[in-house]
Amino acid sequence: MEELFSIHYAEVGLKGKNRAFFEKRLAHNIKLSLQGTGYAEVERLHDRILVHLGQHADIAEIKERLRQVMGIAHFELSCRTENNIAAIKEAALRHIRDVSCESLKVETRRADKTFPLTSPEVSAEVGGYLVKETGARADMHNPDLTCWVKITHNAAYISTEKIQGIGGLPVGVSGKVLVMLSGGIDSPVAAWQMIKRGAKAVFIHFYSYPYTDKASLEKVIEIAQILAVSNYRSTIYLVPFADLQQTIVAATPAPFRVLLYRRMMTRIAERVATMVDAEALVTGESLAQVASQTLTNLRTIEAIAEIPILRPLIGEDKAEIIAKAQRIGTFDVSTRPHQDCCSLFVPKHPATRASLYDLEKAESGLDIDTLVEDALNNLEKRVVE
Prior knowledge:
Helices cover 39% and strands 21% of the residues. The protein is an alpha/beta fold and 385 residues long.
């Protein structure tokens, strides 16, 4: 008998001829996540992934880390034994011996249909044995404990707890994206949703020190660290933006300032995306949430983009975004007071329906290429884990 974690996936199993690619990536990511926990080996089988445990494995820590791995539908701590009824009964008893329960039931599933007993017969025999040995009563409707038995062609697996995973796809199977990460609530959630769909996220953040304090910069680094739990070793590019903002304020009409900031950020982010081989930009914009996020303004911002701008939150309400931020652990950091570069020098009445002609005319007095190059020359790269 061997105690191990049995990991199951959902969408990964539907990938047809590419399934092996997705499974290998998931196994690789599990290894990354479990570094330092005392696991012994990660093994791919045709319908699951097994995590074998070392002598001093930290089971509680392994559980917690597996919860954060994108691509896992659910997992359980299982006891693996021989696929004969005597071994299954003994393994089941051993697996539940430290669990206190007054009632139990056994559910069986056979992948090996040549097994001499049917699934109901296995459940009845194992259940009867457990009732006799533990003193618990059988309850098929509302048991304190359910013991699951899975019988394959070369082994049987016994478990008592199915732990829900995040789902989605393994990080790295969907390419790379550059996330425009602010210190607010929305963009970390947008990043997380792209990571869940298998994209490897690289981050870029624009800051306006000394007009904003260094605490706002540290806050964004902390958010990136939280996301790195699922995104693994992550890179964030920090772009000083204050001088560029001052140039825009001095040379352009006030109602267009925020939109011009966003267009300049997009230009700079595209250049960084090219540097890191990212195939799309990602923002936390939600339709009509603020003046710069009306449909008209979103169109004029992205008009200068040559790669896709993905907006995972575009149709979500603020309450929905907040709930997700709380669930993924970024909300408390995001809601700390901070100064955002786009909130500097904001006019009282920002344009809500700026035309492309208006913005291009406003930018005609700017040396855009020089401004972009200056920003890139002062780029700072940090790695977070």
